[in-house]
Design a protein that fits this description.
mainly alpha, 5 helices, 113 residues
Length: 113
Amino acid sequence: MTDPTRPGLKSLLRPLPDIRLAGPIGPRLALVAVLAASVLLHLVWGAALDASNDEAYHFLYTTHPDLSYFDHPPMTAWVAKAGLLLCGNQISPLTLRLGFVLMFAASGWVLAR
């Protein structure tokens, strides 16, 4: 039963404008929207968090490259270095994470295709 003193959900949503798209959203547009939203979320999250101990270690071996370190494969350093290079070698936690965020978006695209 509904309580007559409380407004229903429809009456609460009535002030919102009626948004209608020209047509149905295709799967490609939906994929792009989901990937763009998730990349934006990861970038905001990556900029808000401080660097961890591992990321400080990543920065050190991007500046001193070697074929391998004891517990990290070389690709980790290459991806972190790519993020630094994309941002003009500006050092911040976000630039260290940028390559990984872009790889996340690319893997999402590949999985969806």
